Amino acid sequence: MKNRKKLIGIITTILAGLTLATGLGFYKHSLVGKFPPGTQIANTDISTLTFIEAKKQLFEKGNKYLETPITIEILGKSKKIKPKELGINVSLEEPLNTVTTTSLTESGLLNIFNFGTKQNKSLFALANIDDSKLSSALENNFKLSEIAPKSASASFNDNGDFVVTDGRQGTTIDKEALLKDLKYSAQNLQNNTIKITTFNQKPPVTKEDILSREEKIKAELNQLITLEDPIYSDDWQIRLKKHPDWINFVPKKEVKIPALNDTIFLDPAAEIGRTTVSLEINQQKLNQFVDENISKWLDRPSRDVKIYTDEKGKIIIEGRGSDGKRVQREQLKRAIELAAENGIDHLAIPTISTTPKIEISLDLQAKGIVERLAVGHTSYYGSPDNRVFNIKHGAEKFNGALIAPDEIFSFNKTLGRVDDSTGFRKELVIKPEGTIPDFGGGICQVSTTMYRAALFSGLPITERNQHTYAVSYYSQILGHGLDATIFLGGPDLKFKNDTGRSVLIQTYTEGDYELYIVFYGTPDGRRVQMEGPYLSDHVNPPPDEIVETTDLPVGVTKLLEHSHPGFRALWYRHLFDKNGKETKEPIETNYKAMPEKTAIGVRQDTP
User: Fold this and answer.
1) How far apart, in whole angstroms, are the C-alpha atoms of residue 262 and residue 240?
2) Are 526 and 391 members of one domain?
């Protein structure tokens, strides 16, 4: 009997164990692909949830957090502001991807009983704060600028006197503590009330600080700074004293650099330099100046281009394929500050370029039309209507032209006939007998732009002819010395396609006064750097000339030609092959000095 009872007990225990194990097994199996107990992200329990379920729950809570206002208190004044308006951004995807769901890779009684002992740690949401948005929100809600300490200021009044206005003591918030509180709120998705600590602060720069550097500050405010246009010949000039609302004065630690033979003692407690005053430009005010004066000329979006062959075999070019460009405003601000501080009178306006999307059909790619090689660009502001028309009309004749491998391209041959039968109008043309109206006047703007595209592509120039005298239309971009004159039956522009593949020409105009010529082909590793222009040997124009004519009424005058000084322009093209070997090619242009010519009507002699 005892043995029977003992056997029954053993069987009961085994059955109970099996039942428990089976239950735990089913429980464990039910958690496969789910997060184990104790898994939390951003103070949110995602235990026993699948990845998709947890993601949905977390993202709903995150969105709710960003839309639910946080109470911000400063000096007894409170405002409810949404976290997203405070510049808070939260990321839940990354912490969610770091935790692991359950997998059933092992079996056995021991694993079943040990299940659940491994738990994921509680994780925070990732948070970052846009400081500019935060500052803007605090200013809009609490007008912190009105209570903030203010540095002394200096300017010149209408009489030219240097006037210094003292600063004021004010109240500053503990920005570091605020950022810490906001980050904690975002990491846990908790919209807690945040009380901002404040403290009193003296003016960063006093009247005495400015007066101690009066002569230096006067010089900085008086400095004439030329902002050089990186594309056109038109520049902008500024004096900071003409823009007093741009100027802030801030403290600056002045560091003395020891001479090479001086002994340097490193004492962490020692003060390296004394505090002085530095001029700082208000970025918002400078941006307004850039918007009104510079960006409308320089800023432009990139434009995509699509190139393909239609059913008739004609090459179609849709779009521009032009780079975008925009002024780098923060870099410009710093450059102006450095120019004023160091007495620099010229600085290039910093810009950044963006590239377009270029889509080329496979049949053209097979010929070697793969990407842009270079862009030629000229402007001709101030041109008369007929000249503008001839430039656009002439440029269209080259759009879509293919240059075969090893072909010597002739501008004149591709251009063809130039007269009224081919749609050209009469405009001034430089000829041996003078500058006179003729069909196609202005076509040299196209040949000049083509010459630059060939130069910048690194192609060998086999024929280039300069103009007799310097023409302002060709110097508006890059200056003098990169023009190319042509005349049917006479001077031509020729260059060789030595890339081994075909080259495609695209031409287009922007507005009425900008011409672009783009070369597409297969890059072979060559690159080009242009150096210049160097101008020398200046010669004043000869005395004015009067030309008598019977084509005008007696005594009536007509200006035939403006005077032009003579000078020499020198450029260098630095051509580097795929191995980095350099060839330096001089481009010399000698412009003649020309007198002003005026026609006057005279009486025709009678026999």
Assistant:
1) 38
2) yes
